[in-house]
Amino acid sequence: MKKIFAALLLLAAPPASYAHELTSTFGDLVHVNSSRGSTTVEYCPDNTCEVFALSGPSAAPAVQDFAFAYLLGVSEYIYLEPFQSNGAAPAVQAVLSRYRKQCSQQSARAAGRCIVGVLAKRHPIRASFVRYDEGERNVVPISLAGFRDGT
Questions:
Q1: Alpha-carbon torsion 18, 89, 151, 118, what sign?
Q2: Shortest CA distance to 42 belongs to which of 29, 55, 54?
Q3: How many angstroms separate the CA atoms of 70 and 77, rounded?
Q4: Per-residue model confidence as pLDDT tens for the chain (151 residues)
Q5: How far is residue 6's CA from residue 45's CA, in Å, rounded to a whole number?
Q6: From CA 57, how far away is CA 34, in angstroms rounded?
Q7: Of 20, 59, 136, 145, which residue is 20 to 30 A from 70 by alpha carbon distance?
């Protein structure tokens, strides 16, 4: 009886994170947190972060695809240049292939920007730039309106 109860608890518990190319590509530089129906992705290469969040039952796959595409096609972190210039990488190709019908695949960076727009239109994803200065967390929202409007 205890084994059945334990199995039911495991099945009912939401997964801590969705297995995704994002975590395999960026390792410890990215943190994915899913709790209470919301998923947050933080990419933090130094004392600054780009943070993406989405609430809902299927938030994890969408927000992780969004974060991956944003880091590929939009982000200006200098640390991302090797990643952004390797459009043939298997992880990049895996994410891009999921949006092949909606986004031209002529260049990986352009496809990444297109995917950001597609997902920003479909989901109320929130994005922000976070800086940790002198022990304080300073958050500046990133407007996704241009991506939602297709501009």
A1: negative
A2: 29
A3: 11
A4: 433 333 333 333 333 334 589 999 999 999 999 998 899 999 999 989 999 999 998 899 999 999 999 999 999 999 999 999 999 999 999 999 999 999 998 899 999 999 999 999 999 999 999 998 888 999 999 999 999 877 6
A5: 38
A6: 10
A7: 136
The structure tokens 């800086």 sit at 131
Give the position of tokens 């933080």: 42
CA–CA dist 95, 121 (Å, integer): 18
Residue 16 to residues 19, 35, 82, 107: CA-CA distances in angstroms? Answer: 10, 7, 29, 33
Residue 151: what residue type?
A: T
Q: How many residues does the chain have?
A: 151
The residue assigned the tokens 């297709």 is: 150
